[in-house]
Write a structure and sequence with these properties.
The complex is a heterodimer of chains A (about 300) and B (about 650). Chain A is built from 11 helices and 1 strand. Among the domains of chain B are: about 240 residues, no CATH class; about 45 residues. In chain B, the strands form 2 sheets. Chain B has a two-stranded antiparallel ribbon with strand order 1-2. Chain B has a two-stranded antiparallel ribbon with strand order 4-5. The longest helix of chain B is centred in the last third of the chain and has 38 residues. The radius of gyration of chain B is 27 Å and the shape is globular. Chain B has 25 helices and 5 strands. Classes of the chains: A mainly alpha (about 300), B mainly alpha (about 650).
Chain lengths: ~300, ~650
Amino acid sequence: MTVLFLSILTSVFFPGMIIRVKSLLSGRKGPGILQPWKNIWILLRKGSVISTTTSFISRIAPVIYLSTVLCAILLLPFPGIASFFGFDADFVFFAYLIALGKFLFILNALDTGSSFEGMGANREALYSLLAEPAFFILFGTLALLTGNTSMQGIFTNLQFDGASTYIIIIIAIYLLVQIAMIENSRMPVDDPKTHLELTMIHEVMILDHSGFDLALIQIGTTLKFAMYGILIANCTIPVDIGFGWQFLLFVGIQIGFAVLIGIMESFRARKKLAKNPQFIVTLSSIALIAFVLALLITFKMIP
Amino acid sequence: MGQYLILAPVLLSFLILIIPERIRHSYVLILTLFIGILTSIPAVRLIFEPGTEKYILQGPFGQIDLLIDGLSGFFILVTNFTMLTGVLYSRGYLKIYEKKKNQAQFALHYFSFTWLHLSMLGVLMLRDGLSFLIAWELMAVSSFMLILFEAEKRATLKTAVNYLIQMHVGLVILVIAFLFCEATTGQMSFDVLQDYFLRNHNTGLFLLFFAGFAVKAGFIPFHTWLPEAHPAAPTHVSAVMSGVMIKMGIYGIIRVITYLQADFFLIGWIILVFSAISGLLGVMLAIVQHDMKKLLAYHSIENIGIIGMGIGLGTMGLGLHNPLLTLLGFTGGLLHVLNHSLFKSLLFYSTGTVYKVYHTRNIEQLGGVIHKLPHTAFLYLTGAIAICGIPPLNGFISEFLIYSGLIKGLSLGSAYQAITVILAIISLVLIGGLAIFCFTKVFGMVFLGTPRAKFEIPESGSNSGMLFPQYLIAMLIIIIGLFPMLFLRPLITFVSYQFHLTTVHELVPISGIFLKISMLSVILILLVFVVYMIHRFLILKRRVIYGPTWGCGYTAGSARQQYTGTSYADSFAELAHPVLQSKDEYNAIGEKDIFPLPRSFSRHPNDVFRFGLNKLLDFNMLILKKLARLQTGNIQHYILYAFIFILIIFTLLYLKIL
């Protein structure tokens, strides 16, 4: 429950903070931090426009998308607090839950029969397919390093001893940030602010959604950010410093994460669409480097 | 079981040929049920209480032993269920052929169908080498007859002959393997394999068996018959072939593994590598297909790969003396056998319904089927989610078992082993991701959007008879997904019996894990239900406007402008071009084309292995053609050949070489 509460808390402030940082950096004052949620609130109370081409897939897909993200959050541990649902190899279940949401989300886009949405769907499918191995190699590495396979066990035993472990933790954080950016369709692969349908990924997939459905999708997306935020916090927050300090550290990390994304998106150009697969596959190779490092640390290479 | 009870199905099956047309289908259904119940009773018993039961059949050529144990019992149950749904489905499906085919052809079709069932049961129960091979051969011949159903099409005829030849290549390898066994032990049977493996090298003979069985199972590179044969056969036949017949190869491999005595680790490693390659290439080739059935056929190869990964992992576990690894690997692999038979037959059946209504399986032309056939769309979606290994359906359960085995295997052995295992994990992840890519493509293109070509759809007849078996399967898929322990507990019992594992303490974490997965799945479903109810409730109160899809301001778009299967797969096909080698056909715009003319673009998927096989065959033909010069038609020449032959023999004898 703590994790659910923390992620909802994060998701409330997180998108607003990114937008604020980006506006400040571009010399504007920017909207209030709660503006994204005000927009969602407006959407929740609006009627909808529904395409006649669509079927029941479009009705249930946003619902399933949000539900899978909520369910995935239930699996996450928080340093020192065991997740009620954690079990061995639970990160597999975690990743596949997200995949269920994505599956329906892609179908949801194809349901409209629009070629723009087809493009978005195709890119989403390809990019998440390419990003998935990085996530699994990362967790495989951590499992190898800690000798545990549940997320709870992995993060609790990820001790901060020695420079070699630090390197792996830094790689882990880097990978998690990048995967979060890809999964949430942010800057290096997708630009949430783009205005041309041909170059959109996430935005183009929800072109035909309005009102309540759109609000569900947006809530899901903000929660997804919070989800990765919690994973990153798990990598960094020590277990034994008491919940008060942990909470403060958590807030600090989330603000840092938001500011980091804001800065990255302000000073970074979006990649050419054709270069995206290359960029994403690079993450897997970085993860493999971490894996080899872990083999060295656990003295498997040199017996 | 008495003698006559065993012989009864065999004798009763001949009645299919003479029985009146009116009651033929009901007769076949009752016969299938009879055979099913007859064999399922001991099968169920032996899964729950591991052991071996023996039934003796006194025949004119001596005594034949029918043996059932947990392993064969499990496969018997899978076979019986799929055959039953196949018969149920065939009634509605075969109506397309009513005008084209005469009654004798239908009778022969059902006769072969029943014999496919009988021969598969024979394969599962016979341990003696010769009778096993006869049953194996009967299985190939009866499925050959089934593929031949539309023999008036030249392509089908060619495919069927190709299938028959490849099956016999597999048979020859198996015969050689059995002969090896006979040469050393003096007997030709599975049971003496243990003796053989105790005294001799394990890997060599195992690899021979593996190759023989892999032809049937469709491991790459032995798979080339599979993507041709499945689309050529009628749908219920492809469902049965893909659902259970190729699993006979898996059964054979596991059967041989149970007799192995050494080299477990190496053999497990080999299986794992072959399987990972089959899985990856299978799904990659599936993505670029245009034919719905051919696509499913490539997915069979992929799933055989996943099953094989489980088996390979389990065998490695035997080598490492790690019971948990063995348990997770074999249970995952075997559960995936069941799961694959369920969702693959479901997918084939719903594809068949689409074909029955639209008379095409071309993904590039179909579209918007969900509005015409909502039930079929729902069923296909269920199958698609299950085959991608996504929770809360059954595919996830078996893949999760294999995943957890692999992850456990990471930290057990040396660095090399860890690298192998992480590569296996990567391939499993990629297989999952690619499967999602592929099935979003099929479902999105075929069932969603609007039709990309014009169809004349007959309004006649409902498909309710065809829907019943499909809903039956879908129900099982959901039950396995939500309550996996129901099925896992007996599986674990007999796997641990088969491989002599002590289970009691191992069982606890597994059931705990799956309890939590069940709980989360139920929570997920409840959440979906609650949010959906809120959604419905709010929509009722709000203003809802229906209109065309947003075309970014352009209002004259046509259905042909939609994304097609090829365009959806394009981004991937380009990345994977070095492996896939698809051929594009289009007329490029020349420099002098000022006024553009109508143009076309088509992409033809290519199977590199098929290409390689053809090259080999061409070479073979070349040599044979050269040899054909000897055939002069001149009697004097032939006498000369005989003379030369005798001379050579004499010389060899004289030199004491022969």
